Amino acid sequence: MSKPTRHSGKSSKGTRQSGESAAEGERDMQRTNLMASSSAGPSPLEQHRRRSRVELTEAKPEKGAKAPAARKVKKTLSPEDEKLLASLLSSEQDFIDSPAFYEKDAQKKIYDEAPEIPKPDTSWYHPVMDDLSGRTRTIKTAQQVILTGAQEKVLFHQFNFARYCIWKVQQDVWATPSRKPTPEQADDILRWYRISDRIREQIANTNLALVLAMAKRTRMSEVDFADLVSEGNMALLRAVDKFDAGRGYKFSTYACRAILKAFSRQGMKLSKYRQRFPTDFDPKLEKSNFLETKRAGFERDAADEVKRIVMENRADLTDVERTVIEHRFGLENGHETDKPMTLEQVGQIIGVTKERVRQIQNKAMEKIRLELEANFLGNAEAKAALAASRKAAEEADQPSLEQIMGLAH
Prior knowledge:
single chain; mainly alpha; Four Helix Bundle (Hemerythrin (Met), subunit A); Arc Repressor Mutant, subunit A; 2 domains; 65% helix; 1% strand
């Protein structure tokens, strides 16, 4: 067997070197493209991180570890989650205790190994619409979900175990000096709360027909049907929170008594209201017209005072000004006429243009206003202005009606 020659060995080594150089060239090209794309703008992953406000920080590798440790993800809660977390930590979580919560692998047995519970369909539930239209919607049997005692026990165990987990995290948080949850504890509280709220809603939706049936059976003429159903729904939710499935009773038995008590309380409230307010509600009585009546009476008194000022000439009106006011506002003979004269008609009477009548009217109205505000409304500034105007009038020479008519002719 002949040995391979040195030439063949050199050629194979050269082939490997050429392949490695080609791969290195491809890697350089990829690095160049990556640098170009990064210089053009942030990558889609970076954009997603910025939108969701997630900060990724590399953890320091432990001593002796070859591979770096996993990265830690720090999330910031939304304002809604922060309010919900503060509300959950403000008071101790209530729950119905059970020995099953303290067994080994309790969470796995209660959730993972539990049978699947059918969920209800509430598309048929429109009690207020049915009541107003005067017809009753038939409930299809296929849409109704009637749970057995075992199924109810599974749901209530899941519901109360979630509330128990919230209570447990609360105790851990309150045991610390700061009494503030860590990000992991906050995430656990919110997660268990959403689980309990979802199961609570499922139980309530399953028993909505119970509230509707009880409301129609105990129909009260003095209570509105919508208010009755609303009170029954609130009683149903309170019954879900207080029911102990470990005693072996059906939830419908407990909920019926709670709903009937709620109806009874609603009737008692209405009877007390009827005793205090025996008359029926009248929307017209809800609107108070005191201010309108007060304003209308004041306007009538002010109008009568203006008439007296003109008739008694307490504003020191000249004959021309008094004639213009009486004819313009129909105050001849001390009472109003049906049709007051226009500016042109008054101008024909006193022999001047309608523009001159407007000027005389404005001057007379200013005198009347000052007299009204000074003596009827008690305005100090108006009194001073009235005194100044009277002093100026005494110094000036006012022409009489005969003089104006003579000048016109």
